[in-house]
């Protein structure tokens, strides 16, 4: 077995671990290994903390990965639990919380979305993420954002259920755009009776519980009845509803008639990479699929990988009654851990035949294809980085690139943005936003804005944890010679030895005619002979621009909403808060009538009139 190079570091780590052995109990619990910067390196569980931790004092019997971990360990923390099941659950939660580098962990663990019908006299139909603490009915989860959007749009077109917030709904005095494009029945201004609206809500609930055909039969009977009465226009509207539902049902593929709620997971490995493909069924219909890539699985068994995955994936989530995997998991401890705090029995199985096995085989093929695509994509990213390094004649290989862009409108709401790309493509968790703060920068001073952003990036809080935010091998900025000079001055002032590349847009901002500037080539150069590298750099620049513009728009919108009320004399902090709490937003206040504004506590008739006139005169 390979040994770690630095024996002194390894021995230091072993001694740090040994110092805890005498005081550890022979009881179940969870342990954390931390480095000298207090970063959690590893989270583990144990039936006996004393015996498990003692294993780390014999590094020659451990894999190279764990030897490296021991060499970085400076201290440990422990939590004693009543049982090994609770240790298993706590371990999963702590891995999600700390994302330790030496643990097996999910790379993508986003919240899945639900369809939500709110608890309101006129229920709202919307997409919902996060903890389901609000009242009402939830349907899902949906793992595909596109799929849930399609379902909601189809239901809105078919049944015209409102999608606006309660505060916006309350403030309306006339129908909004959704009514005019036939996606809402405008209950806010009584364009539909409550009984009719509730009937539509009931039909939506029926569809979302997997009983689309029942609603279709009811609508077909209504269509025939209206046609017999010669109400052809009404019959045509119902016909269009039936068509929409038929289309919606066609998207709910691979239905399983004898099973309502279940998750299917198939594990595949390729070139030391692991992917678990999930197929999610609710109410007998496929609610989407998702590929999960796991890190730190090279030396782990498939059983251990699956155990870690299931516990991390289901932490804090409601678990369906059935979980199917592509090979058997016979660990009773895992079964008990999954069963904790669940209202129904959880069955964990590996079907060998029938429809369920067919679904798992399909999931396995998808997992293999996802791994192949990822490996091809990773190889391509490496080629881009190598080619760019050669073209720029860099002394070291490129592993991390940071791209910067600024955004403002005539100098207002000035912001800067940073995106990161590397061996795996875009690394969105490392993206950063900067609000330009310096009073010395005049509106529209792009050079000054770039200088401030770079100073804060390379001398500010981001530099405190180099592991979390390491310095890049190349910095790319949007601009020409001026931006390059401003950035280079910052780097020279702070002795930062990182190559800079500036991208100046071509004539008439034509893509493909960009000019590139570096310290070695201040006169500029083109990349027309290196089209792949040119397209790669365009992609990086466009992503930085997209991120900057998105942040700028959000900031500008927030500023506009704030200024609407802040400019009105007589509206102080208390009255402003009362108006926003009553209507939900400054825009909703502007949409309200004088009588509506007067109903807010602390707002007199004269002041309501003043607010109304001030908002509408602006």
Report what the structure shows.
The protein is α+β, with helices and mostly antiparallel strands and 618 residues long. The protein is built from 20 helices and 19 strands. The relative contact order is 0.06.
Provide a compact summary of the structure:
This protein has 618 residues and is of the alpha+beta class.
**What would you call the structural class?**
alpha+beta
Q: Give the tally of structural domains.
A: 5
Task: Outline the low-pLDDT stretches.
Answer: 1-5, 250-254
The CATH architecture category of the largest domain equals: 2-Layer Sandwich
State the CATH superfamily name of the largest domain.
UvrC, RNAse H endonuclease domain
Q: What is the average per-residue confidence, as pLDDT, rounded to a whole number? A: 83
Major sheet, described briefly? 7 strands, mixed
Outline type:
globular
**Percent of residues in beta strands?**
15-25%
CATH fold field value of the largest domain: Nucleotidyltransferase, domain 5
Strand runs, count:
19
- Backbone CA Rg: 30 Å
Return the CATH class of the largest domain: Alpha Beta
* Assembly category: single chain
Helix-strand layout with pairing:
Elements: H1 7-21, E1 29-34, E2 40-46, H2 49-54, H3 64-72, E3 75-80, H4 84-98, E4 105-106, E5 113-117, E6 125-128, E7 137-142, H5 145-159, H6 166-171, H7 177-180, H8 194-208, H9 212-228, H10 232-251, E8 262-270, E9 273-282, E10 285-295, H11 302-314, E11 322-325, H12 332-339, E12 347-349, H13 354-392, E13 400-409, E14 412-422, E15 425-426, E16 432-435, H14 446-459, E17 474-478, H15 481-493, E18 500-504, E19 515-517, H16 531-566, H17 573-583, H18 586-591, H19 594-598, H20 605-617
Parallel strand pairs: 8-11, 11-12, 13-17, 17-18
Antiparallel strand pairs: 1-2, 1-3, 4-10, 5-6, 5-7, 8-9, 9-10, 13-14, 14-15, 14-16, 18-19
């Amino acid at each position: 077995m390979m040994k770690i190079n630095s024996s002194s570091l390894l021995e230091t780590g072993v001694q740090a671990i040994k110092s805890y052995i005498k005081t550890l109990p022979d009881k179940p619990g969870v342990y954390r290994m931390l480095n000298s910067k207090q970063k959690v390196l590893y989270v583990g569980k144990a039936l006996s903390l004393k015996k498990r931790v003692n294993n780390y004092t014999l590094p020659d019997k451990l894999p190279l990965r764990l030897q490296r971990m021991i060499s970085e360990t400076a201290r440990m923390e422990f939590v004693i639990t009543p049982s090994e099941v609770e240790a298993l659950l706590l371990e999963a939660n702590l891995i999600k919380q700390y994302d330790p580098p030496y643990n097996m962990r999910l790379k993508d663990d986003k919240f899945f979305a639900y369809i939500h019908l709110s608890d309101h006299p006129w229920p709202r139909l919307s997409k919902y993420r996060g903890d389901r603490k609000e009242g009402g009915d939830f349907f899902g989860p949906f793992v595909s954002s596109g799929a849930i959007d399609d379902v909601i749009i189809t239901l809105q077109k078919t049944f015209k259920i409102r999608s606006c917030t309660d505060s916006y709904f309350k403030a309306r005095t006339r129908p909004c755009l959704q009514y005019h494009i036939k996606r809402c029945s405008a209950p806010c201004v009584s364009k539909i009776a409550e009984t009719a609206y509730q009937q539509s809500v009931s039909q939506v609930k029926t569809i979302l519980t997997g009983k689309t055909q029942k609603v279709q039969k009811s609508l077909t009977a209504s269509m025939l009845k209206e046609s017999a009465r010669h109400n052809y226009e009404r019959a045509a509207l119902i016909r269009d509803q039936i068509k929409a539902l038929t289309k919606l049902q066609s998207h709910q593929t691979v239905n399983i008639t004898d099973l309502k709620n279940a998750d299917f997971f198939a594990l595949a490995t390729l070139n030391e990479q692991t992917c678990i493909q999930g197929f999610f069924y609710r109410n007998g219909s496929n609610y989407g699929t998702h590929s999960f890539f796991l890190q730190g699985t090279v030396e782990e068994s498939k059983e251990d990988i699956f155990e870690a995955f299931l516990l991390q994936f289901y932490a804090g989530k409601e678990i369906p009654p059935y979980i199917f995997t592509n090979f058997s998991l016979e660990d009773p401890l895992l079964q008990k851990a999954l069963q904790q705090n669940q209202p129904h029995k959880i069955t964990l199985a590996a079907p060998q035949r029938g429809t369920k096995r067919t679904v798992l085989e399909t999931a396995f093929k998808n997992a293999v294809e996802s791994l192949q695509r990822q490996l091809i994509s990773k190889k391509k990213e490496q080629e881009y980085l190598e080619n760019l390094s050669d073209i720029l004649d860099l002394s070291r290989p490129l592993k991390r690139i940071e791209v910067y862009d600024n955004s403002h409108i005539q100098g207002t709401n000035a912001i800067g943005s940073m995106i990161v790309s590397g061996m795996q493509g875009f690394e969105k968790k490392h993206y950063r936003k900067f609000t330009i703060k310096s009073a010395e920068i005049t509106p529209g001073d792009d050079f000054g804005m770039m200088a401030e952003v770079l100073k804060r990036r390379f001398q500010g809080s981001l530099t405190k944890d180099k592991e979390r935010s390491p310095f890049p091998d190349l910095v790319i900025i949007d601009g020409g010679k001026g931006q390059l000079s401003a950035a280079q001055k910052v780097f020279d002032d702070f002795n930062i030895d990182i190559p800079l590349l500036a991208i100046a847009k071509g004539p008439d901002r034509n893509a493909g005619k960009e000019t590139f500037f570096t310290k070695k080539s201040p006169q500029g150069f083109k990349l027309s002979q290196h089209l792949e590298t040119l397209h790669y750099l365009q992609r990086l620049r466009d992503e930085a621009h997209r991120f900057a513009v998105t942040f700028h728009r959000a900031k500008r919108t927030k500023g506009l909403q704030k200024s609407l009320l802040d400019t009105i004399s007589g509206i102080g902090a208390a009255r402003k808060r009362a108006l926003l709490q009553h209507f939900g937003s400054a825009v909703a206040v502007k949409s309200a009538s004088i009588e509506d504004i007067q109903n807010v506590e602390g707002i007199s008739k004269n002041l309501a009139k003043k607010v109304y006139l001030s908002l509408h005169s602006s």
